[in-house]
């Protein structure tokens, strides 16, 4: 009986360690993905300000920025959903 409990405990510890390592890697990759997304957002802002004659405080600038970012997100989602081994679930956010 005692060895059965020990075996279950060792299995539980190994499973917890593997799960923790997987979660850690996931969060590190999420951090890099967020950093890359912020870099792309900065690039999109730069391109709009440089090549489109719209003042930075105008509503048209914000609309154009939202459209460009949305199209970019849709393209990236389609690319990842084609090559992902697991189904990619879109993240739905609330915009106020």
Write the layout of secondary structure elements.
Blueprint: H1 2-51, H2 59-83
Walk me through this protein's architecture:
- This protein is an all-alpha fold and 96 residues long.
- Helices cover 78% and strands 0% of the residues.
- The chain has one domain (2-83).
- It contains two helices and no strands.
- Helix 1 (2-51) crosses helix 2 (59-83).
- The radius of gyration is 22 Å and the shape is rod-shaped.
- 0% of the residues are buried.
- The mean pLDDT is 75.
- Overall, the morphology is rod-shaped
Assembly state (oligomeric): single chain
N-to-C CA distance: 58 Å
Mean pLDDT: 75
Could you name the ranges where pLDDT drops below 50 across 5 or more consecutive residues?
none
Overall domain count? 1
Return the string of H and E elements.
HH
What is the beta-strand fraction?
under 5%
Derived structural class? mainly alpha
State the helical fraction. over 70%
Biggest sheet overview: none
Number of helical runs?
2
Number of strands: 0
- Rg (CA only): 22 Å
Attribute tags:
single chain; 96 residues; mainly alpha
Summarize the structure.
The protein is mostly helical. 0% of the residues are buried.
């Amino acid at each position: 009986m005692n060895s059965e409990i020990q075996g279950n405990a060792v299995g539980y510890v190994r499973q917890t360690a593997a799960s923790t390592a997987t979660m850690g890697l996931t969060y590190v990759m999420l951090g890099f993905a967020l950093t890359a997304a912020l870099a792309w957002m900065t690039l999109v802002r730069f391109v709009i300000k440089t090549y489109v004659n719209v003042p930075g405080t105008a509503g048209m600038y914000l609309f154009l920025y939202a459209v460009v970012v949305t199209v970019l997100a849709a393209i990236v989602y389609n690319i990842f959903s084609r090559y992902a081994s697991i189904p990619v679930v879109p993240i739905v956010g609330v915009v106020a």
